[in-house]
Amino acid sequence: MRIDLHTHSTASDGTDTPAELVRNAAAAGLDVVALTDHDTTRGHAEAAAALPEGLTLVTGAELSCRVGGISMHLLAYLFDPAEPALLAERELVRDDRVPRAQGMIAKLNALNVPVSWEQVRRIAGDGSVGRPHIATALVELGVVPSVDAAFTAEWLADGGRAHMDKHETDPFEAIRLVKAAGGVTVFAHPGAAKRGRTVPEPVIAELAAAGLDGIEADHMDHDPDTRARLRGLAKELGLLATGSSDYHGSRKTCVLGENVTDPEVYGEIVRRATGAFPVPGTGGA
Question: Fewer CB within 10 Å of terminal CB in the chain, N or C?
Answer without folding.
Answer: C
